[in-house]
Automatic annotation (TrEMBL), chains A, B:
Entry's family note: Belongs to the class-I aminoacyl-tRNA synthetase family.
Pfam families cross-referenced by the UniProt entry: tRNA-synt_1b
EC annotation from Swiss-Prot or TrEMBL: 6.1.1.2
Taxonomy of the source species: Eukaryota, Viridiplantae, Streptophyta, Embryophyta, Tracheophyta
Alphabetized InterPro entries for the sequence: aa-tRNA-synth_I_CS, aa-tRNA-synth_Ic, Rossmann-like_a/b/a_fold, Trp-tRNA-ligase
Gene3D superfamilies per UniProt: HUPs, Tyrosyl-Transfer RNA Synthetase
Keywords associated with the record: Aminoacyl-tRNA synthetase, ATP-binding, Cytoplasm, Ligase, Nucleotide-binding, Protein biosynthesis
Recorded GO CC terms: cytoplasm
Protein name: Tryptophan--tRNA ligase, cytoplasmic
Endpoints of the signal sequence: none
Any GO BP annotation: translation
Amino acid sequence: METDKTVETASEQVVNPWEVSAKDGGKIDYDKLIDQFGCQRLDQSLIDRVQRLTSRQPHVFLRRGVFFAHRDFNEVLDAYERGDKFYLYTGRGPSSEALHLGHLIPFMFTKYLQEAFKVPLVIQLTDDEKCMWKNLSVEESQRLARENAKDIIACGFDVTKTFIFSDFDYVGGAFYKNMVKVAKCVTLNKAMGIFGFSGEDHIGKLSFPPVQAVPSFPSSFPHLFPGKDKLRCLIPCAIDQDPYFRMTRDVAPRLGYSKPALIESSFFPALQGENGKMSASDPNSAIYVTDTAKDIKNKINRYAFSGGQDSIEKHREIGANLEVDIPVKYLSFFLEDDTELEHIKKEYGEGRMLTGEVKKRLTEVLTEMVERHRMARAAVTDEMVDAFMAVRPLPSMFE
Amino acid sequence: METDKTVETASEQVVNPWEVSAKDGGKIDYDKLIDQFGCQRLDQSLIDRVQRLTSRQPHVFLRRGVFFAHRDFNEVLDAYERGDKFYLYTGRGPSSEALHLGHLIPFMFTKYLQEAFKVPLVIQLTDDEKCMWKNLSVEESQRLARENAKDIIACGFDVTKTFIFSDFDYVGGAFYKNMVKVAKCVTLNKAMGIFGFSGEDHIGKLSFPPVQAVPSFPSSFPHLFPGKDKLRCLIPCAIDQDPYFRMTRDVAPRLGYSKPALIESSFFPALQGENGKMSASDPNSAIYVTDTAKDIKNKINRYAFSGGQDSIEKHREIGANLEVDIPVKYLSFFLEDDTELEHIKKEYGEGRMLTGEVKKRLTEVLTEMVERHRMARAAVTDEMVDAFMAVRPLPSMFE
């Protein structure tokens, strides 16, 4: 069976939508992943180009390499430079009520892209996927999708340019026709190879990849982009979603569609250390957007893996190991001030700053961020959710 | 792999939606098929009961054993006797422009059931299936679906009680939710076992069985049967469709739904003889509803396999072999007069009637039937098709 071979070949590190595991429980080797997946590194010249084209400082996640890989992002920028439009597509599988910080990353970044490039955006809530994978009821999946939509909206998207949809609500019509067209192009062997499915998996899993594929094609949204079937798609996502879009890009030319471009992030590490993604099953592995200031402080102090030394003397002497230090890692995601971050890394790395001080600063940064999110979310009304989810034309022209 | 075992076990005769082949190229053994599939024989007491409940003579296809097997048809009649409702569900894969007589059989029978029991009916046009299996474009599949709908409507269905839908148009909403619920309950191994799929098949095929399954559940049609989620479903179909509904019946209780009941027909034989179904790829294997009187006469005279003897002398002496004689077989489907049919069988079987005379009578019967169909179809307007395909409540009460 092709599956077994593929899984065996990739046994050193496995990254797919359901499993992220590094070699021997260590760190994910992102350089190797780029080779393994066949995507491209997002280098400084591309980041400089984004700065030039958008006339603003690139997002922290670009400057600091959180989004580190891409597929054809350069082509999207070429076209943008010529005045050609594109649209953004991202999504979320609504499997839990409360989002953690890792969940926010693609949305924070997508909001930046939408603002910087002034482009329309579709956000897919894969409630059908979660219903099938997590064995949630249809109703519960849809409820979670709507709850998660509020958190997504709280990230600050522009309602005039953003369409949020639930698969259970939206699958049908042109979207379903594209699902069928995609499904025709993917053999069972191929799907098992790409996604690692087995004979014991249910056929719902086999049916799902086309659902996640087709928002890459503007013709799936005839009401959103009427007459804009050539609009190029750019997908910001974590790199574990790459298998879906490898499949999509493989199939697209056979359907006469453009391949979606991708811009892909590394994983946000668990509090306990950088070996994989955070786990919803262990609430102490992550900071949630629902955590109180006290929760945040406790979690950081008790669980955030420190690269500091065992004794103050030793720490003063050799400094912290920044490579494994979670507080520094988290600050590099969320502390916007480059100068302050460099200062902390230098002082901490050379032993003049202690773990407790770094954790204190991180606690401040995250508490403020979570509090801001909480307030923004509290202001999201049901009417706003309805407005984001209303099927209507989106402006595909630049303002 | 479970598939191989299943295929091997069933290697004597294979009957599934894509293949019908008897042992050693002979006749399908329907008794054995009943055992193989685990369905029930439709016996005389059930037929008598239908007569009693509907106060009319049972359809020729019941009286003559064309519909010969069932699943829980007795339960549907029990409920009907108590005053409980049911609805009919049948369908067609629109793979060709012109229907042949074999295609009409389930529709002729379904029309009778609708009239006799005064019940609502849904007719699924699986344009998505044909797009995937026959590699037709979406547009061509939908065009064929609409053309076929005209032939179906020409069979005389009651527009106030009949909803015809194309999957490409209708999949979505509650229908899609039920597809996901069904898909969750069927493992890939199981689907490969039931349907004989292989790793080289595309995932669209694996995704399709839930599409054919869910019209068995009234909750898939919330606009048709509002508040009637308990309405029982009865499916008239050829027995090659049984695998879909074995799967559906297996899954239904796990979803809290009633199992659909089935009433299943044998196959209409090819002109060349009774080993399987007619083939669209050989136009001389079947009489089409578009054939002219001359076509019909020619086809019957040239291709209809005769059970008559080689010489008139021998024929007069030992008579025709009615078991293999196609003209007699066809007459037993379409000659409504029981007395005349018995007369022909007796005279022909005992050598007093010659093949030519039987073929002549068959030509008259089919020419009249095809001519009647042609006229009815010519009267079907686009507005009528729209009316049958409009999503609207159907009366689920008895008149």
